[in-house]
Design goal:
This protein is an alpha+beta fold. It has 4 domains: 60 residues; 213 residues, no CATH class; 74 residues, no CATH class; 128 residues, no CATH class. It is built from 12 helices and 17 strands. The strands form 5 sheets. A 5-stranded antiparallel β-sheet has the order 1-15-3-11-12, with no helix packed on it. α9 crosses α10.
Length: 512
């Protein structure tokens, strides 16, 4: 830290010492201003590179990755002749074909329902929210004591038995409380409710199917509350779906949704003797739309790179110094910086290489394919004129024809895996090239977002080097400014002393 000096600003000489020092320092600061401007340009270039890298990362995730995966192209569609009866959802590995389905019976849950209405008088029904004791006279079949117990046993999905015993205090519990306690025992796998219009209790399993064991077993431990008052049955059984597929009859399923040949079938009602046809085919529309989306986004990415490469550079518009900013309005600063930031990546070699590699990866023929679809040109994708700088166009009719004719070949064109560039699929090539571009830009400008405090990129190192030089120069400038002030202060002191001596001589002369 430099020492503080006493300053005499023109008290004796009458000079504007402060302005003179500032003017001298303005000249001396010019190299520092140039370094600050160079640092600002580097930081702006870094921002531009990072923005491009963000676009590349987004393209890699949303487009390039999907186009190297077979699942993107193994898309099937299922059409039902009667969607009110049977619908289907094919997986990527589903085989194309037709399925004739007859549904004789739907799978159902096990339902234990009160055999009769609970209330003695239909005109004066019980209030399920009131305490049981207050409603006792309204029940068709009443209980004895005030503390009742019953048990429920279930075999969820036909597995091991689960038994829960419930205790009822009729002086404090309502019917709704009893049913809520049953619902709270999730391990039983049942739901219970009171249906007001029929005045009955329903206890149902949450899963469909007729297993070898009873799905619901109810027993009264004390008194006859469950089987007597609530009129429930001792046991209840579920029901399987029964159907035939392509002439194979007697097929049973525990649920109305099941998977066969990577196709998930959903049964909604019985067929009534009329078979329903489900046709599984390749989803040409989805694959075509996916390829179109990829090409459009690739065009957008190349367009973004070309926009940076061709952006006009205004070399005379350097970043504003601190003094220059003080002399301009906010609008003028904004207009100036717009030009100062323009074209910082003009004709940039990294970006030009990126455009070239993307276009080369997409247009180079894929070797080793046994079909005629070995390049984008064979499936209806072409390049534009030279002045369009790498734009691709799609002949949708030709693309659709290729996908419909040989979807496996189109898939191979994009997804073929190989250690050699020539044999790699287009999607795999693009993905690898985008990865290389991202790494190259990260080496040049650092990560777009990072938890790392230290930026080891080329620009990051350059900025740190400039910061060191700026700090050294600022120290020298501070010393220079203090030297100026010492010199001017010494001059002021000398002039003040001279003026004092002159005044003394004049007084001596006048006095003599």
């Amino acid at each position: 830290m430099l020492s503080i000096i006493n300053r005499m600003a023109g008290l004796a000489s009458g000079l504007d010492t402060d302005k003179m020092v500032k003017d001298l320092m303005k000249v001396a600061r010019m190299p520092l201003d140039q370094m600050l401007q160079k640092k600002q340009i580097l930081q702006w270039r870094q921002e531009d590179y990072r923005a491009i890298n963000t676009s590349l990362i987004s393209f890699r995730t949303s487009q390039a990755l999907e186009m190297k995966l077979q699942g993107t192209f193994q898309v099937k569609t299922a059409t039902s002749s009667d969607a009110t009866v049977v619908t289907a959802t094919p997986g990527g590995a589903a085989s194309t074909g037709t399925y004739s389905i007859e549904v004789t019976q739907l799978a159902e849950v096990a339902n234990n329902i009160s055999s009769t209405a609970l209330s003695l008088d239909p005109a004066d029904k019980i209030d399920p929210s009131a305490t049981l004791e207050s409603q006792k006279s309204k029940f068709a079949s009443a209980w004895g004591g005030t503390t009742l117990q019953f048990s429920i046993t279930t075999h969820p999905n036909g597995g091991a038995a689960v038994t829960k015993t419930f205790t009822v205090d009729t002086t404090t519990d309502s019917l709704n409380d009893v049913l809520a306690n049953i619902n709270a025992e999730t391990s039983l796998g049942v739901t219970a409710f009171h249906e007001s219009s029929t005045d009955k209790v329903v206890i149902s399993t949450t899963k469909t199917g007729d297993y070898s064991t009873n799905e619901i077993e109810i027993a009264d431990v004390t008194d006859t509350f469950a089987l007597g008052t609530l009129q429930l049955s001792a046991t209840a059984q579920g029901q399987n779906a029964i159907l035939s597929i392509n002439g194979m009859s007697g097929i049973t399923k525990y649920e109305n949704s099941f998977t066969l040949n990577n196709i998930t079938f959903n049964l909604h009602k019985t067929t009534g003797g009329t078979p329903v046809t489900v046709t599984v085919a390749n989803d040409v529309d989805t694959v075509v739309a996916r390829i179109k989306s990829f090409v459009e986004e690739l065009n957008s990415l190349i367009g973004t790179l070309n926009a940076e490469i061709n952006e006009t550079r205004y070399a005379s518009y350097l970043p504003l110094t601190e003094d220059q900013r003080k002399e301009l309005t906010d609008y003028e600063i904004e207009q100036w910086e717009e030009k100062a930031k323009s074209g910082l990546l003009f004709n940039d070699s990294i970006l030009r290489s990126a455009v070239y590699e993307l276009r080369r990866a997409f247009t180079t023929r894929v070797s080793g394919l046994s079909t005629g679809y070995d390049s984008i040109f064979s499936i209806g994708i072409s390049t534009g004129y030279y002045y369009e700088e790498g734009k691709f166009y799609i002949n949708e009719a030709k693309l659709r024809e290729a996908v419909a004719a040989d979807p496996e070949a189109v898939m191979a064109l994009f997804t073929a895996a190989s250690s050699t560039y020539e044999n790699q699929g287009l999607g795999a090539r693009i993905y690898d090239k985008v990865n290389q571009m991202i790494s190259r830009l990260q080496s040049e400008a650092g990560y777009a977002s990072s938890f790392s405090v230290y930026d080891s990129s080329y620009i990051g190192n350059s900025v740190r080097n400039i910061d060191s030089r700026i700090a050294a120069m600022e120290y020298r400038l501070e010393k220079l400014e203090q030297r100026y002030w010492r010199q001017f202060t010494a001059m002021e002191q000398a002039i003040a002393q001279f003026n004092t001596q002159s005044a003394w001589l004049i007084r001596q002369t006048n006095g003599g």
